[in-house]
Amino acid sequence: MKELFGHLKDGRRVDAITLTAGDLSVTILSYGAILNDVRLRGVPYGLTLGGSEIAAYEHGPMEYFGAIVGPVANRISGARAELDGRELGFEANEGETLLHGGPQGLHTELWKIAALSATSVTLTLTLPDGKGGFPGNRLITARYTVEAPATLRLELTATTDAPTLLNLANHSYWNLDGTATTDGHWLQVFADRYTPVDGRMIPTGVLDVSGTGFDLSEGHVLRPSDAQRYDHNFCLADGPGKMKPAAILRGTSGVTLRMNTTEPGLQVFDAAPIGSGEMNGHRGVPEVGFCGVALEAQRWPDAPNRSDFPSVRLDPEDTYQQETRWSFSKK
């Protein structure tokens, strides 16, 4: 089902597409390819954070909530990178750092609805050479599919006509209890390594999680009162291309989310500094710090400047491919 969600400041129409199969119903926006809402039968609240007004998303406080971020998700240090001997410069939007593709990132784009059925929608986006500082004319496709009994699948593909950098991610915040914060949620991440960061949130290398606050391999209860904060990349067991478990998130209500992905990294962000300002979320009130947990399947941060990290280079003869699955259940 497709219906009007709102209009951008320049008058362009934004559609909301609702997909349903089995016990799961999700709403996708044509703006930002945003995963706006996720509903599980028998649960009286949404499982992902979002809003009902386009103003919350269009350069607003929820601009990343549920969006596809890129062309290069996460951070690029110094807002610069080298590609085939050419230095690429970007418009920094986090101090001296490029975050999620910058102020012209994919989260600000109006995507085209290329195909639509009761259970699936395919969105496409064409990016011209040089936009945001990235080379190549690029075609990006995002396909969301709902499958019974309660699985959401996201397939991302991209092509380019010139060597470029590409690393896409879905930036949904999850809260499985319908509460103000994720206090009491249990999180397990299937990783034995992570990338520590400096004061600019740029990775400094790769470390074993053993003996650290980043060891989530057996599961850990999240508490806003804990000293340990999370805005870090976890290195998943296998490299790009192989479907594998990434994380399990369980709320105190008994709702469980299992996440699988083909990506080699999972950025875990506890949303400690995140809120929705004066804009209401799905609960009818503004979102506050620790409102959700972002689980972002992607390549590793600052990969364009780290030859030892999985590459984010995309050449004309190749096709970028990513698949992520979220499966929901309730006791």
UniProtKB/TrEMBL annotation:
Disordered as annotated region, ranges: 302-331
A Pfam entry, by short name: Aldose_epim
GO molecular function term, any single one: carbohydrate binding
Keywords: Carbohydrate metabolism, Isomerase
Gene3D superfamilies xrefs: 2.70.98.10
TM stretches of this protein: none
Organism of provenance: Celeribacter ethanolicus
UniProt similarity note: Belongs to the aldose epimerase family.
CDD domains linked to this entry: galactose_mutarotase_like
UniProt-recorded name of the protein: Galactose mutarotase
Entry's Gene Ontology BP terms: galactose catabolic process via UDP-galactose, Leloir pathway; glucose metabolic process
Biased amino acid composition, Polar residues: 319-331
PANTHER family: ALDOSE 1-EPIMERASE, ALDOSE-1-EPIMERASE
